[in-house]
Each structure stands twice: as structure tokens, then as C-alpha cells.
Write a structure and sequence with these properties.
Elements: H1 2-12, H2 27-40, E1 50-51, H3 55-67, H4 75-87, H5 94-97, E2 118-121, E3 125-140, E4 148-160, E5 164-176, H6 179-188, E6 198-201, E7 208-223, E8 226-233, E9 236-237, E10 253-262, E11 265-275, E12 281-283, E13 286-288, E14 291-302, E15 307-318, H7 335-341, E16 347-358, E17 362-372, E18 387-396, E19 405-414, E20 429-430, E21 433-434, E22 443-452, E23 458-471, E24 502-518, E25 521-533, E26 538-550
Antiparallel strand pairs: 1-9, 2-3, 3-4, 3-26, 4-5, 5-7, 6-7, 7-8, 8-10, 10-11, 11-14, 12-13, 14-15, 15-16, 16-17, 17-18, 18-19, 19-22, 20-21, 22-23, 23-24, 24-25, 25-26
Length: 559
């Protein structure tokens, strides 16, 4: 794979043009992107169901929206559009550039722009440097060692010779998670959204982590319609809160992403190296974690100005003497054919997604993922290998005419044993964490989100999660833990239903308020109430938190 990538980079770097790095990948940013795409009345060519989006494309969406006389923008909308433009000001035209200037700089060289602590531009280079800081403390009634977050770091992005883009983020973190996150971390032997972490004390009352986090990639425009990204980062496919296809919940992974966009078509290829933490290999007296691999094709088409439909296929594989199997490097072949041609030893998943925006207020979206499909058994008494996941959701912005009051409802369903496999090299897992939904499989979930921005800098939100999840018990595999081999300890072949096993009913309510003191400098207040009920026991927790963050997203831990 290394030789192939070297040749590929050599060919494409011979002739490149101006390109863009990507926007942040977090819930708040994604909501703004979806909101203003709905408000624009047209899907354009943003293809926001593939996240993150390019900064260049987002700036175009916001500036076009300001020029659209049919769009009714509130004062808060104008503030938000200016915020998004300021965050990527290098793509603004000369007329708008001055709006990002700070009223007062620091020592003449720092904070000259609202969004950058330091920036430098000339004909050869463009650099943006900003610190990352987050400190939060909380009270959780179920634990003695109370939750704390302490994050410090730096973020750097830019371009060289207007041809090569780059991004890097480095943070040092000490975190004591709430009790329910600690339980999740112990179960999966991994912390949500993160890779390698050191557990400072494994005792259940003093559970904390200390870890260094890093992401980085380069981008370049190979041809007018083809952009290349290579590095360690994440991706998210979908328009919802969750993704049944590919989410950002697992650890960052090394990948090559090729995005081809021609008119109403966008075609994305991702070739990635994941981490199989379930296997340890002794090499020369040391213990190493072997890799596993991932290839994904996603075709997105704007059928009309309101309707987008996507088709995808992906394959997870590993344990090859040559590493990445070059058969899966073909960007335009049907992966299921290749997988069958190689002996059907790998895990292939296919499916579709859609989004329909209408009346500049509504968006209907959904996903269907097929992990196993056998027409003969599909409707036959709930066969164990009838494995699929579905999602349906809706956004309603400016509810009942109330400006900047937005509502979102989403329903997710995943059959038992979906995403699991008979090999740890082929389950839908990276660094022990699900690549799709955090609950894995064997569940039903309803999500409700209300967001309200009454004034420019104040953000209020309420989230409710209601789920029924079938968990394992008595050492039997009931299909909820996708780390397990679906051939081992499976109780039955037929009669498998969602919620089978030890049924957990989860209710998670989250009420939050954030105030932006300066650009990307927030103070956050949050109140969470979470309960899990089983047949013979129940746990309830109430968590109150206060935090400050600068150039750092809120940690979305809706489990």
C-alpha cells in the first residue's frame, strides 16, 4: 500500500490547483451547516451528508445565502453566517476580509483576526495557529471521584504555494469521565472518540485517563474535480445525530480519501488502516497491536435541488501477509464481487441514504444498511443473519415561525448481530469502538433535540435519548455486543428479535446552555439525567457540569 500511495501522490502533485482543508467535525458545527443548507432552499453541490465539508464550500454556501433575496435571515442568522465565514476567512473575497479583523490586536502580531491567535500570509504560504483549551468540572451522584476535563493543545492549518493544504491538531488531556462513560470504557476497553489512553487508576471510584491526542492530514486538488486527503482523522456519513454507515465515534484512523465531484455527482473513496485491539501480537519481545483495513465507496447524487440520494458499499478485512489487499484499491469496482472472488472471508456492508429538504424549513433524511441479505431467509421467522440497520429523521428549523428555534427527531433501529463477524479482523470495529452507532446492535432508539438561539451569543439546547438495548447474559451471545464472534455462544438460529437478551431501557436527558464570550471561546453549563432499567435492577445518575473551552468542541457523550 505504501508504494501505491507514493506513486499516487507523485502523479497528482505534478499538477494541482487551489484547494481547501476541512471544517471541524462536531455536532454544533454540523447543525449550522444543515440549518443553512435547508434555509438556502437548494442542496447546491455541498453534499453535506459527507462530513466534514471543505471550508471553501461552506464559505460559498454562506455568502450565496446572504445574496439570496428569498432567504429571510434574522439578526442571529447574520451573526452565525459571519461566524462561519470568520472561521474560514482565507476563502472570503477582499470586500469581506475586513469583517474578520479584530478591534484590538495583541503585541501587533497576535489576534489580528477574530478566529486566529496568529496568522501569516504571503504569496507562498498561509498559516493559521490557534490554542486549544478546555477545562470543566462536574458532579455525578454515582461516583466519588468527580468528573474533570483538562485539555490543552494547539491547532495549525494552512496552505503552501496555494497547492498543498495541511492541518494538525495536538492536545494533552487528563479526563475523569462520568460514571456511565467509565462503565462503557470498561466494557469496550476503550474511551469514546479516542485511541490509546493511559488509565491512571483502574479502581472503579478513581477511574481517570491521561492521553495525548493528535490528528493531521494533507490535502491537494489533483484535478479540477478531484480532491485528495491523506492523514489521521475521522469521517461522518449522514445527516443525522447518529450514522448507520460511518460515524466519528471511534478513534482517528490513517486514511486516504479521494473525493470526485462532477456536477450533481459526488463520489467518495476511503481507504483506511484501522486498529484491531482485540488481538495482541508478540514481536521481538514486545507486544504489538495488529492492523485491520477498511475500504468504502459512496456515491451521492442531487436528483433535484431538494432531493439527494446516496449509495454506499464498504468492506472490512485484515490478516493479509501483504497488509492492505490491493484488490480493494480499485475505486470503481463493486466490492462485494471482489470479496466473493477472494473467497468471501471479509465483511461487506452495503446500503443507501437520502435527504429531502423542502419549504426552506424542513429536512427529511434516512439510511438503510444491509450487513447480510439472503432473500430465501429474509422473512423466515427472524433468522439470525437477517442483519440490517435503519434510520429515519426530520429537522424543522424556525419552528412555528419562532426565529432560530430548531427541532430534530430521529429513530434508529439495528437488528441483532449486525456489524459483527466471525473474525475480529472483519467486525465493524476500530480500536474496540463501533464505527457506526455507539450502542453496536440489537437496539431501538429515539432521539429528540431542541436548539434555541435567542440572542447572538447564547445557545440553548435540550436532548432526549430513549433506547431499548438487548445485552448479553449467562455468557450467551444475544447479538448486542459486536465485538463477539456471531458463531460462538449464539442461542438460536431463528426467533431473533430486537431487544432479546438482558433488556436495558435507557433514558438520557441533557439540558445545556453555552455563551460565546469571544470567537470560539465558550462558557458551558449542562445538566444531565440518565437512567438504565433492567428487569431486576435500575441505576439513575444526575450530572451537573460547568466548563470553559477555547477552539474546542463539547464532548458529545450521548450513550
Amino acid at each position: 500500500m505504501r508504494l501505491s500511495l507514493t506513486i499516487l501522490f507523485g502523479i497528482f502533485l505534478l499538477k494541482t490547483s487551489a484547494q481547501s482543508t476541512y471544517t471541524p467535525l462536531n455536532d454544533d458545527y454540523s447543525h449550522l451547516i444543515e440549518r443553512y443548507e435547508i434555509k438556502s432552499g437548494s442542496l447546491s453541490n455541498l453534499h453535506s451528508n459527507i462530513k466534514p465539508v471543505r471550508r471553501k464550500d461552506l464559505v460559498k454556501l454562506t455568502t450565496d445565502l446572504e445574496k439570496d433575496i428569498k432567504t429571510k435571515l434574522s439578526k442571529v442568522d447574520s451573526f452565525n453566517l459571519a461566524y462561519l465565514q470568520n472561521d474560514s476567512w482565507e476563502w472570503l473575497d477582499d470586500e469581506k476580509l475586513t469583517q474578520n479583523d479584530s478591534k484590538k490586536s495583541f503585541l501587533k502580531h497576535f489576534l489580528k483576526k477574530k478566529s486566529d491567535f496568529y496568522n501569516f500570509q504571503n504569496k507562498d504560504a498561509d498559516f493559521h495557529i490557534s490554542p486549544i483549551f478546555q477545562f470543566a468540572f462536574a458532579h455525578d451522584n454515582l461516583v466519588k471521584n468527580q468528573p474533570v476535563t483538562n485539555t490543552r493543545g494547539i491547532e495549525i492549518r494552512g496552505t503552501i504555494n496555494k497547492k498543498l493544504g495541511f492541518y494538525t491538531m495536538l492536545t494533552d488531556n487528563q479526563i475523569v469521565y462520568p460514571g456511565y462513560v467509565r462503565e462503557y470504557g470498561r466494557f469496550y476497553d476503550a474511551n469514546p472518540y479516542e485511541g490509546f489512553t493511559k488509565i491512571t487508576n483502574a479502581d472503579s471510584t478513581k477511574f481517570g485517563t491521561d492521553f495525548f491526542s493528535a490528528r493531521g492530514y494533507i490535502t491537494f486538488q489533483a484535478l479540477k474535480s478531484i480532491q485528495i486527503q491523506f492523514g489521521h482523522d475521522k469521517n461522518f456519513i449522514g445527516s443525522g445525530i447518529r450514522s448507520m454507515i460511518l460515524s466519528d465515534f471511534s478513534a482517528p484512523y490513517l486514511h486516504l480519501k479521494i473525493t470526485t465531484q462532477i456536477g450533481k455527482f459526488q463520489y467518495v473513496n476511503i481507504f483506511a488502516q484501522l486498529i484491531n485491539k482485540q488481538v495482541r501480537v508478540a514481536v521481538d519481545g514486545t507486544e504489538q497491536i495488529p492492523p485491520k483495513y477498511f475500504s468504502l465507496h459512496h456515491l451521492s447524487l442531487n436528483i433535484s435541488k431538494n432531493l439527494n440520494v446516496g449509495l454506499f458499499e464498504t468492506v472490512i478485512f485484515g490478516k493479509r501477509p501483504i497488509g492492505f489487499d490491493i484488490n480493494y484499491l480499485n475505486p470503481i469496482i463493486f466490492l462485494r464481487f471482489v470479496e466473493g472472488h477472494l473467497g468471501s472471508v471479509d465483511n461487506t456492508i452495503v446500503g443507501a441514504d437520502f435527504k429531502y429538504n423542502f419549504k426552506r424549513h424542513f429536512s427529511l433524511y434516512g439510511q438503510l444498511t444491509l450487513d447480510e441479505f439472503n432473500r430465501k431467509y429474509f422473512r423466515k421467522n427472524n433468522w439470525w443473519a437477517t442483519k440490517y440497520a435503519t434510520q429515519i429523521g426530520m429537522r424543522y428549523i424556525d419552528v412555528l415561525g419562532v426565529k432560530n428555534l430548531d427541532f430534530q427527531a430521529e429513530y434508529n433501529l439495528v437488528r441483532p448481530y449486525t456489524y459483527s463477524h466471525n473474525s475480529t479482523y472483519s467486525n465493524y470495529i476500530n480500536y474496540n469502538l463501533p464505527l457506526a452507532h455507539p450502542l453496536g446492535s440489537n437496539f431501538k432508539e429515539a432521539l429528540f433535540v431542541v436548539r434555541y438561539q435567542p440572542i447572538n451569543r447564547l445557545f440553548l439546547n435540550f436532548t432526549a435519548m430513549l433506547a431499548k438495548h438487548g445485552e448479553d447474559f449467562d455468557n450467551l451471545n444475544w447479538g448486542g455486543n459486536i465485538l463477539r464472534n456471531y458463531l460462538i455462544a449464539r442461542p438460536r438460529d431463528y426467533g431473533n428479535v430486537i431487544g432479546q437478551g438482558n433488556l436495558a431501557t435507557i433514558r438520557h436527558l441533557n439540558l445545556g446552555a453555552s455563551y460565546m464570550l469571544q470567537h470560539n471561546l465558550f462558557i458551558d453549563l449542562k445538566l444531565q439525567n440518565r437512567s438504565v432499567n433492567y428487569t431486576d435492577e435500575a441505576t439513575k445518575s444526575t450530572i451537573f457540569s460547568l466548563g470553559f473551552r477555547w477552539n474546542s468542541p463539547q464532548r458529545a457523550l450521548l450513550l
